[in-house]
Amino acid sequence: DSLILKDDGMNGDIIAQDDVYTLKFQNDSTIISNTLGDDSGSVFINILAVYVGQTEQKSASFKIGNIIPRIISIATPDTITRPSGATLSLHLVSATVFDADGLDNIKWVGFTSYHVEGDSMMNKGNYIYLYDDGSENIIYLPDITSGDLISGDGTYSFKIPVFGSGNTDPDYQTKPGTFRWEFITQDREDEYSLPATHEVVIQ
């Protein structure tokens, strides 16, 4: 992008004709081609000052402030059928995230589960966390892992337990109905992504 700074007291310039040249513009693809924050937090600038018979040039680079992470996609069933009897089934839920400051800047990825018909939050309103560990860790004994396929690829996963309709213990019962899952991620600068929602019907 080639942009012209002006000393006219407009578009971000405070005082006209004070020899301070300024330009304020929106980070929008309709205005500039190389928008900031899509894939990098680094900015490179080359300033040219053209005088009569002389050109001065100075280059610089800097890193803009922390860019919030993004949830790119969610992979989860739309409908889950509870198994019969006092049994258990596992269903893989995944979220792919992106951070312009690098995937190692992702602190955690998780979601909350809201029971629409019951007007209540599941898991006491706490986040259900997803993992990007390539299933290397045991999440629940004796041998249940996250179900994640590749470690460190930005796709976080977890196998959601769904208990059969024959379970009588309240701690091992899955309610039927419509659930609104709201996914979010946080980076190491404690900035949150915009939430992404998905509705799941458990029957």
Task: Note the main attributes of this structure.
203 residues, mainly beta, six-stranded mixed sheet, three-stranded antiparallel sheet, 42% strand
Overview of this structure, please?
It contains no helices and 13 strands. It is elongated, with a radius of gyration of 25 Å. The strands form four sheets. Strands 4, 6, 7, 8, 12 and 13 form a six-stranded mixed beta sheet that branches. Helix content is 0%, strand content 42%. The chain is an all-beta fold and 203 residues long. A hairpin with a 4-residue loop joins strand 6 and strand 7. It has strands at 42-51, 54-63, 70-75, 79-80, 88-98, 106-115, 120-121, 128-130, 138-140, 144-145, 155-163, 177-187, 196-202.
Low-confidence stretches at least 5 residues in length (pLDDT < 50)?
Answer: none
Radius of gyration: 25 Å
* Distance linking N and C termini: 54 Å
The rough form would be described as elongated
Oligomer: single chain
Number of strands: 13
Class based on secondary structure composition and strand pairing: mainly beta
Helix content class = under 10%
Mean pLDDT: 93
Alpha plus pi helix count: 0
What does the main sheet amount to? 6 strands, mixed
Helix-strand pattern, N to C?
A: EEEEEEEEEEEEE
Strand content: 35-45%
